[in-house]
Amino acid sequence: MPSPFVWSEINTPNGPQHRYRDTRTGRYVPARQVRAELDRFVDAAGRNATRDLTGQLRDGRIGLAEWQTAMARAVKNVNYAAVAAASGGVENMTAVERGRAGAIIKKQYEYLRGFAADIESGKQPLDGRAIRRAEMYAQAGRGSFHEQRRTGISAAHPGASLMIRSIRHPGDSCRSCIELNGRWFPMGDPGYTPVGQRECNVSCRCDEETAQLADDGAIESFGVDAF
Asked: Are 68 and 171 in contact (CB under 8 A)?
C-alpha cells in the first residue's frame, strides 16, 4: 500500500522548504512528529534487534561472526532509514543523500568491528553492559537524522550565514543539553555540540532549529519544522 505521506516543497518568507504532507487530511506533518516516529523506530530496533542478538550471543545460541553480520544489517537499516526520513523518504533520496547514508553506515561498521574485537578479547564482558552498548548502535540513528537535516538546510541555502540552536527535550538533562538550550550558534561553530555527540550520547532526544543571519544581524529562523 502506498504511503499516505508525500514530500512537498513549500514557499516561505525565507525561501523554499520541504514538508511531509498527509494526503488523507491535506495537512503538513510537524518535524517533531517525524522525529517521534523515528524515535519509535529506533527504540524498537534497539529492543527487538540489537538486544535480542546480543542476548543470543551471550547465551551461546549464535557465534560472534553471525552476531556481527546481523548487527551490521540492523545498523544499516536504522541509519539508512534515519537519513531517508530527513530526505523525504527513500524514493526522494538523491545520489548525494544515498552516498551520505553510506558514509554514515561505513563509520558505524568501524565502531561495530571494534565492539566485536572487544568481545572476542574479553575486554567487553557479555553482560548488561554489552547489551546496552549494542542498543547504542540503533540509537545512533537519531544523530544520522539530524546530520542529514543540517546538511539539507545548508544545501538549500548556499552562501547564507546559517545559524543553529538546540531545543531541549524535557527528558534530556546532560550538561551540554542544558547549557546549549536556546542559544544560537553559527552553523559549524565548534562551540555547538550537535545532537548525538553530547554527554547523553546517542540517547539524546533534543531537537535542532536552524536560521539564517540577515544583513542587519537579525536571526531569521527557518522554523522548527524546516527541512
From this structure: no
Cell numbers for 87, please give them: 530526505
Element (H, E) at 150: helix 141-156
CA distances from 212 to 17, 125, 215 (A): 13, 48, 10
pLDDT tens for the chain, residues 1 to 227: 567 888 888 888 877 888 888 889 888 888 888 888 888 888 887 778 898 999 999 999 999 999 999 999 999 999 999 999 989 889 889 999 999 899 999 999 999 999 999 999 999 999 989 999 998 888 888 888 889 889 888 888 888 899 999 998 877 678 899 999 999 999 989 999 998 888 888 778 888 999 999 889 899 988 888 78
Q: For residues 87 and 103, what is the distance between their CA atoms, to the nearest angstrom? A: 15
Residue 60 zone, left/alpha/beta (φ > 0; ψ -120 to 50; rest):
left
Provide the 3-class DSSP secondary structure of residue 30: coil
Instruction: Give residue for cell 541509519.
Output: 79
List, as one string, the DSSP characters of 62-82: S-HHHHHHHHHHHHHHHHHHH
How many H helices and E strands in the chain? 7, 7
Angle of the 141-156 helix axis to the 31-45 helix axis, nearest 10: 150
